[in-house]
Specification:
Strand order of the largest sheet: 3-2-1-4-5-6-7-8-9-10-11-12-13-14-15-16
Strand content: 5-15%
Radius of gyration: 30 Å
Helix content: 40-55%
CATH class of the domain at 1-135: Alpha Beta
Largest sheet: 16 strands, mixed
CATH superfamily of the domain at 1-135: Ribonuclease Inhibitor
Distance between the termini: 76 Å
Number of helices: 23
Length: 550
Amino acid sequence: MIQRQLRNDDPTLTKLQIQYGSYIQESNLIYSPGTWEREGEAIGRNTHLKELEIADPCWINEDELELFFQGLSDNRSIGKLSFKAVTLTGGEPFYILFPFFEYNNNLETLEIEYCHIDDDGYEHLFSALAKSCSLKKLTISPGIEGCTDTDLYDEEVLAKSLLRHVNLITLNLEGNCMGNRGCRTMTSFVCDTRTILSTLNLEGNNIGDEGVKYLTDALSKTSTQLKYLYLAYNDNITSVGWKHICDLLRKPDIGLEGLSMSELSNEVMLDLASSPGCHMLKTLQICNTSHTDISCPAWKGLFGLLRSPTSVLEDLSLRGNELTGESTGCLTSALANNSTLRSLDLSCCRNITTAGWDALSDCLRNPKSELETLNIQWSLYNDNGEATALLADALASNRKLKNLLTGFSRRGIYSDKMRPLFQILCKEESIMATYQSNHYIQNLGVLSSYETTSHLELNKNTDKAEVARQKIIDVHFSNFNVKPVIDMQPFIDMDIGVIPHAIAWIAKGSNNQYNWRNEFYRYFVRNMPSLFDIKGRTKTDQAKRQETEN
């Protein structure tokens, strides 16, 4: 079907992902293609395709991939092109795509992640970028785990090719091992008056204190558009380098709104918290400080940002930190009156105690909480079930949280731990219990059963009264979801004065395949004849007529 849509230039086909030799649209496996030359030609002729992702095509040999790229090079509609875990060596793939880059003025996003690229590949990639001028977002990221002590390419060639892209606003170079020299080059690019770059990701690049010093000196002397700067996972940055960042945040009119750091000392944490610019951050990531014993006073100083009435912090990541019950209590205490934070990342924080989870649960019960995303992946690894039960109890009444990312598997030991969280989505003890279930959580970050997945999908509906109605019908009145086979027991136990209201409430919806309302009425009348004594009422009417005639 996807192949036919592609060749017919179907306007409804705007996104396409090719993975493991298959077309995938909206995560559903559709079709296994045969001749890659024809598929590339079909994409080349297509005028409606806006996004194309090619992920891990290990089944395609080098010749087939080049034939595919020859067809792709004729496309002029794709605005976002992604390569993930693709082998792009020898330079031929990007050389073949020169026309695509040169003549496709719709291309705004290019993502190259976890790909194997050699020297020739990078040379032709940068030549291809030099032929284009429309990019707004560029990612070249082998991944932090792929970073070595060797510089992967000449950053000066990359910077020179990017100067044509006057609208480039996001540059992600995570894990490119560029070191201090590469950091200097990228700093010169950011400070060039021809650029409007607002986001720069240099995480995992073997940058040290020297590179940070050059970066902060340049940013403090030059007016730039840079708003978000990510430097975490550069293990060569010591307290000296991070203090340069704190000093930068003391400069007036720096304008940074997002920052990532890692491996901070107590002294740097307190220095960061006291920096005026820190209070202007909307995004702050302090990652992987598990090798450093951060004291509670240092955490308390940082969490003071959340207490400030002028706080604008929306996204806080504390991934991998040694948070104890005491430090977690400091965090939740600071959140008690905070109304700006929308996302909190506590993933890989395995030392949080039951007392800490209890304090976090109180935070989720707080009606002032505006948290929409809570990431606790791998933080409940040592939980015996108490923490999960506390969270489930708190979320039963929470009306703001949409994403609770747990990272648990549906199989094995974690299934029992997750059960309380599954159950709050649709309590089955009574109609009122189902009505009072959580109708807001949409993502648990875990593969789950069909029932749980359907409840999460239902929760995406903004009409929460309709969500509750559908859950009540599914649990208490229907034996299955598609065709209405009604469980009559709730009606039998119901006060007769309530029944008409219950009938009207249940029957107000409709189903795509069946007319729910008519089917429901027919089924109800057939199975509750005592409420519809038609024969008895007919005899009464006949007796009244005879009385009138006499």
